[in-house]
Design a protein that fits this description.
Layout (H helix, E strand, L loop, with lengths): L1 H11 L7 H10 L12 H19 L1 H45 L6 H15 L2 H32 L2 H4 L6 H21 L1 H8 L3 H25 L5 H30 L12 H31 L1
Helix pairs in contact: 4-10, 4-11, 5-6, 5-9, 5-12, 6-8, 8-11, 9-10, 9-11, 10-11
């Protein structure tokens, strides 16, 4: 009798690699009259496990998940536009778009370093030269830091020499305009350096994490923006622009920092190497980077002038 029951039990749950957590979940989803594990229908368990395997395949697919995260970030950006217009008003929203767009153009001043990372690291991984990879990544962060510092000092100099308020036709006090730009350029320069993790993820064939970080940033910004609109609804318009700039910069900084730490822990790369990248190798990187930069600028100019040509 015992042998017969044991055989029947084994037949009902004839699967491989069922973890305790999954079984507990399946027990909770089973019908109320099937609370014993031996009474759970094997077809029910098989359907659940096949669904879990399907979800695992989908989430591990870089192309599908990259498309999903890109769509999610686009949706969050689309939803945030009416929220910003309602909170800032038409004129102040135009100022915010001007500031945001200006610094997006400045991103081209990385001299194509992010694009070079995507091609050079796979090449070095193929040769198995881990030390040179670490030295190259460290050099890239150094160069990005120098560029970010140069950009910040350049804008400070421009604000001291030029009348930005009249130059850009902004209907606000000059002191406020300078402070607003400095706040945004400060966060931009920090994120300019930390943004390197996106190119690093792509270089190790994990591009979905680059898109995931963008999606998380956009969704987090949208949620905090909604909270800000409810907590500070009646403040002065200058304060609202400060708040939006701070929320945008802080969220981007925090998410970029988290994903940068995650990359170096998951991929076992290190910035503590003492090896210096050979100058000949750096020169070839600079030349390739300038080519990438020329292609990017040319593409933007072509895209911007397409309407005028047509």
């Amino acid at each position: 009798m015992f042998t017969e029951n044991k055989t029947r039990f084994a037949t009902r749950i004839n699967f491989k690699k069922i973890t305790f957590t999954r079984l507990r979940y399946l027990c909770c989803q089973a019908p109320k009259n099937a609370w014993r594990i031996g009474e759970i229908d094997s077809s029910f368990l098989k359907k659940i496990l096949s669904l879990v395997r399907l979800l695992q395949k989908i989430t591990s697919n870089q192309l599908i998940m990259s498309g999903f995260y890109k769509a999610l970030s686009g949706l969050a950006l689309f939803v945030s536009i009416p929220v910003l217009i309602h909170y800032l008003g038409n004129t102040s929203y135009g100022v915010w778009v001007l500031v945001f767009t200006l610094f997006q153009w400045v991103l081209l001043m990385d001299f194509g370093l992010s694009s070079v990372l995507k091609t050079k690291i796979p090449e070095l991984q193929h040769t198995g030269n881990t030390d040179l990879i670490n030295a190259y990544v460290k050099s890239t962060y150094k160069i990005c830091g120098y560029i970010a510092t140069g950009i910040f000092l350049l804008f400070v100099l421009l604000f001291a020499v030029l009348d930005v308020k009249n130059l850009l036709n902004i209907d606000f006090d000059s002191g406020f305009v300078i402070k607003l730009f400095l706040l945004n350029i400060f966060f931009f320069c920090l994120n300019f350096v930390l943004n390197t993790h996106k190119a690093l993820f792509v270089s190790v064939h994990k591009g979905k994490f680059a898109e995931q970080s963008i999606a998380v940033t956009q969704v987090s910004f949208l949620l905090l923006l909604i909270v800000t609109t409810h907590c500070f609804p009646e403040t002065a318009i200058e304060t609202k622009l400060y708040l939006v700039s701070f929320v945008n910069g802080f969220v981007s900084l925090l998410i970029n920092l988290i994903y940068t730490v995650y990359f170096f822990k998951s991929e076992k790369f290190s910035l503590k190497t003492k090896l210096e990248t050979p100058k000949e190798y750096l020169n070839s990187i600079y030349r390739l980077g300038m080519k990438y930069m020329a292609i990017q600028v040319g593409g933007l100019l072509l895209f911007s002038s397409a309407n005028s040509i047509s």
